[in-house]
Design goal:
Oligomer: single chain
Largest sheet: 6 strands, antiparallel
CATH architecture: 3-Layer(aba) Sandwich
Number of helices: 6
CATH superfamily: SMI1/KNR4-like
Helix content: 40-55%
Order of helices and strands: HHHEEHHEEEEH
Radius of gyration: 16 Å
Number of strands: 6
């Protein structure tokens, strides 16, 4: 997927992919849920004030189109502004603490802020905090480091591509019956 795609393009494309997967997947492993309504600029500023730091610019841009996405990818919740200020953030912070204490990842806890977290395992996606040497970079942890991305948009585009591959597999399986 080209990096020039806008957030409305990317979000809309993923919504369509998830709907098609939902229509074809007999297992129901991947659920079809819509993203939340966009966060207002006022809500974004309020969240940053309560967090005491700015949100990553790429993540913040996404929130301006979708204020989080429950069950974004199987059990992973893409956190919205309310999630950043409540129990979801506490769970994600705990997962980061445990992962970074247990694994030699090379990442420092104070450099990272969570943006997505799984509800049923230890997966957490974190972004390098603004003002740090890793600002804007995305890292996916599942007990250990799984993948790194240059920025939030690149990670999101990879998720869109992952959903496309899942849909292609479902179509191939269906056609071979």
């Amino acid at each position: 997927m080209a990096s020039g795609n806008t957030w409305p393009d990317l979000i809309g494309h993923l919504v369509l992919l998830k709907q098609q997967i939902d229509d074809l997947d007999p297992t129901g492993v991947r659920t079809y849920m819509l993203p939340r309504v966009a966060a207002t600029e006022e809500r974004l500023r309020e969240t940053e004030a309560l967090l005491g730091e700015p949100l990553d610019s790429g993540y913040r841009a996404f929130l301006g189109y979708a204020d989080g996405w429950p069950e974004f990818s199987i059990s992973v919740q893409l956190m919205g502004t309310a999630d950043q200020l409540g129990a979801v953030r506490a769970t994600a912070d705990n997962y980061l603490d445990v992962t970074l204490a247990a694994a030699a990842t090379g990442w420092r806890r104070l450099e990272l802020a969570p943006v997505a977290v799984a509800s049923d395992d230890k997966d957490v996606i974190a972004v390098g905090r603004p003002g740090t040497q890793v600002a804007g970079r995305i890292v996916w942890f599942a007990g250990e480091e799984v993948e790194r991305y240059a920025n939030f948009k690149e990670w999101f585009e990879d998720e869109v591509a992952s959903h496309q591959r899942a849909l292609d597999r479902l179509r191939t399986t269906r056609e071979s019956r």
